[in-house]
Amino acid sequence: MPSQTYPCQTRRTDFATSLPTPTVTLSIQVPPSNNSGWNFNGQSISVSVDVMPTIKAVKGWLASELGGMPVNKMQLKSAAQGFLKDGATLAFLNIGGGTGVFYWSCF
Predict the structure, then answer these.
(1) Which of 38, 103, 101, 43 is nearest to 71 (CA)?
(2) What DSSP string runs through 51-83?
(3) pLDDT band at 102; cut points 50, 70, 90
(4) First to last CA, the chain
């Protein structure tokens, strides 16, 4: 049985291969302290990641930077795309090939 290619797989693969490098540097602005015990100091966190992992995986990498904040309590938001869904990849969202600035939000 031949393998099937889904449109979203093609879209993210095409985007990833069109980039000069498959990594992106994310600059994430964390809000000021909210007295929750997390490491919220209004800092900016920069992380270089591949464009193929999911948003949920990116949140996992950020968890240690935020004092162990659970991934399910995090939200990433971009000015252009609003809240980023956990199952989407950076490539699927056409985020890559440079630096993206995202604003950190938690609930």
Answers:
(1) 38
(2) SSSBHHHHHHHHHGGGTS--GGGEEEEETTTEE
(3) low
(4) 45
CA distance 69 to 34: 13
- Tell me the two tokens of residue 70: 């659970």
Using an 8 Å Cβ cutoff, are 72 and 103 in contact? no
pTM summary value: 0.74
pLDDT tens-place string over residues 14-66: 777 776 677 888 888 888 876 667 778 888 888 888 888 899 999 998 888 88
Which of 86, 4, 104 minimizes the C-alpha distance to 47?
A: 104
